[in-house]
C-alpha cells in the first residue's frame, strides 16, 4: 500500500507539475522514487528504489515520466553504460519511442531529451536542458537533483551552486522535500569555498530535518577543508544515529569520518571504519559512490605507507567487472587504484587499453573526449608511480594539476590526486621535482592551515631532501 502522503495526479497538477498519466498509483510511485533519490534512503516497505521502478512501470507502462525517473536513476548511478548494457540501451530507446507517440508537456519532453543525452555521455548538454526546465518550473525537484548530480560529475562547482540558488526563492518550507534543498545549496557553497555560509545553510537544513544525510555530509566537508579534525569527529559521532539510516549515503559519510583519522595519522582507526562500514556496505550495494570511496581510502592509506594489498584484492572483486565501463573518468581512475594496489597488471592494462581506444574515437561522449588530454595522462601517472618512476608521474600530473576538477567529484575526493603529485615529487630523484614538492606543500599549508597531514608530509620531505 502506497502511503497517502505521496502525491497523486491532482496534487502534481496543483503544484504546476502535471504528469501525463491518469494513474494515481503511478503518480504516487513517481513521488516515492523521487523522495528516495533526494533523501538518499531506500523505502524498504515499497521495495526500495528498484522495487518502485518496477512498480511504476507496472502501474502505467506508458507513463513517460515513470520511465524518465527509472531509467534516469540507473544512468545517473553510473554503474552501467548503454555501450555495454543492452537492457539499459533498450530502456532508453523505449523511453524515446514512448515520448514520440504521446502528447506531452514541454517540461516532460525536455526531461526525455535530457535522459537521452545523458545516456550518450553528453552530460553538459543534459544539464543545460535540466536548467531549461527550471527556468519555467523551478520547483521540479527531479530536474534540480539530476542537474546537481550532473554538475558534480563534471566538476562544475559554480554551476552546481547556482543551479540551486536560482530556484530556492520559489520554494517554501511547507513544500515536500524543501529541507533537502538546503543541503544541496550548502554543498555548492562549500565546493566554491564559501565555508562559513555552507555550514550555516547546512545547519538550517538540519534544524528542519535531522535526518538529512546530505546536509550532514556538507558539514563534514567543511570540517575536512578547514582541517578541523576534532570538530569533524565530534560532529559525525553526535549525528551518527540520524545519518546512518540514509543507506545510500551512509558509507560515504563513514568515509568522511575515516578521513579525519587518516588526517591524524591514526590508520588503525581508519581501517576499522573501512572494514566495518565502508567495505561491508560497498559489497552489499555495489554502488559506484561506495566503490570509489573504498578505492580512494585504500590508495590514500597506501601512500601513507600502510599495507593494504589484501584489502585491494578483496575490493578488486567489486571493481573488476567495471573495468571497461568508462562511464566517468573519475570512476576509471579509482578502479585503477585498486587494480594497481592488488598488483593485478592485466586488469590495469585492460582498463588503460580500452580507455585509450575510446579516447581516440570519442564521438559526442564528453568523458571520452576528456580522456585524451586529462584522463589518460592521470592514469599513466598512477601506473608510473606504481612502478617507481616518480619523475614520470610528476611530469604527467604537474601540467594537469589545475585541471583535476574536470574529472568531477568534490575537492575532498580529488585531493587524492594532489597528494599523489606531492608524493611523486618528494620521491623523485630529480632536484627540481624535490623543490616542487616543497613548493606544493607550502601552497597546501597556506590553503589549509593546521593540517596534520600536511605537517607530516613537510617533515617527510625535509627528511628525504637533506
Task: Describe, in plain words, how this protein is organized in 3D.
- This protein has a domain at 1-154: Serine Threonine Protein Phosphatase 5, Tetratricopeptide repeat.
- The chain has helices spanning 9-14, 24-39, 48-59, 64-76, 86-100, 106-119, 123-136, 141-154, 157-165, 178-191, 195-208, 213-225, 229-243, 250-264, 267-285, 288-303, 309-319, 329-341, 345-360, 366-386, 390-397, 411-427, 431-447, 452-464.
- The protein is globular, with a radius of gyration of 22 Å.
- The model has no long low-confidence stretch (mean pLDDT 97).
- The chain is mainly α.
- The chain starts with 8 loop residues before the first helix and ends with a helix.
- Helix 14 packs parallel to helix 16 (288-303), helix 18 (329-341) runs antiparallel to helix 19 and helix 23 runs antiparallel to helix 24.
Helical fraction: over 70%
Average of the residue pLDDT scores: 97
* Order of helix and strand elements from N to C terminus: HHHHHHHHHHHHHHHHHHHHHHHH
What is the C-alpha radius of gyration, as a whole number of Å? 22 Å
Number of strands: 0
The dominant shape is globular
> Which regions contain 5 or more consecutive residues with pLDDT less than 50?
none
Supply the number of helical segments: 24
- In the CATH scheme, the class of the domain at 1-154 would be Mainly Alpha
Q: Fill in the CATH topology of the domain at 1-154.
A: Serine Threonine Protein Phosphatase 5, Tetratricopeptide repeat
- Structural class of the secondary elements? mainly alpha
Distance between the termini: 71 Å
CATH architecture of the domain at 1-154: Alpha Horseshoe
Largest sheet: none
Organism: Synaphobranchus kaupii (Kaup's arrowtooth eel)
Family: Belongs to the TTC38 family.
Protein name: Tetratricopeptide repeat protein 38
Keywords: Repeat, TPR repeat
